[in-house]
Amino acid sequence: MRTSSASRLPAAVAAGAVAASLLTAAVPALAFDGTTAVAPSDRSPVEAFRTGARAYYAGDKDAAVDALSFAADKGHPLAQWKLGRMYAAGDGVAEDDMKAFEYFRSIANAHADEAPSSPDAPFVANAFVELGSYYLSGIKDSAIEPNARRAREIFSYAASYFGDANAQFQLARMYLDGSGGKRDGRQAARWLQLAAKKGHYQAQALLGKLLVDGEVVPQRPTAGLTWLTIARHQAVLPKDQWILDSQEAAFAAATETQRRKASSRAESWIATYASAQ
Predict the structure, then answer these.
(1) Nearest-5° angle of CA 158, CA 163, CA 164?
(2) Sign of the torsion angle spanned by Cα atoms 135, 170, 277, 10
(3) With contact defined as beta carbons under 8 Å apart, do 142 and 180 qualify?
(4) What is the mean pLDDT of residues 96-116?
(5) TM spans, by residue (predicted)?
């Protein structure tokens, strides 16, 4: 990461930027896939990326990796991001979290001060989120060991500077658990609300549950049921069964007036949000 970027960031995120700069010193840099074919030297990274993207969506993963690897080696951030996702998921290549980590880290190092409004910003932000997740769990048989504090700093940077909803959700969870730093329910609720307003349904559900329970933030059952009802609209079974269970429990405990208000507000929010997409 460019160390000069921290001085241009708001004070609230400067610490995250400095911490994220440790990425460059975390592990020795690894080469990308040296076994892939090299594209012709006169091909531009942009052309190689487009070729790779077309090959990927046509189902030719081998050709996609060749072209994307050429573009990635030339510093093309979207090619690096796509390869990172492919290696993380074992999509057309052998699953390799260390290679995925290196691609994401390369993006973070080179584009930490990407303008949040730029077309590449969502991919850069996602690279930070992926790195934070790797630091949270560690990578088996590698130099990347679980480091909750570093994960929290990286999520904080992506959440604050890029306003990334996934980073805000992950950061909120760490504040709730006290993972990587102090436990702070109010800060958790603040980050969840920011992510929820962007349509992050898991953040909506967790915020709703906090508001219904009233254990770490003041209890607001109608607002909590509203967010849970909105989240239920996007929940995917079976992994999101907790959202359905939480919404049904909140609905059963609510008064008839609270139910009507929550349902009306949820329907209005869903209609407004859907029309904006």
Answers:
(1) 65
(2) negative
(3) no
(4) 98
(5) none
Task: Please check whether the domain covering 1-163 is classified as CATH 1.25.40.
Answer: yes
Q: What is the pLDDT of residues 42-94, one digit of tens each?
A: 579 999 999 999 999 999 999 999 999 999 999 999 999 999 999 999 999 99
As a dihedral over the C-alpha atoms of residue 206, residue 85, residue 158, residue 213, rounded to 10 degrees, the angle is: 10
Burial class of residue 47, CB neighbours in 10 A (0-12, 13-18, 19+): middle
* Residue 186, CB-side half-sphere exposure with 13 Å CA sphere: 1
Residue with tokens 């429990």: 249
The predicted structure's pLDDT at residue 42:
54
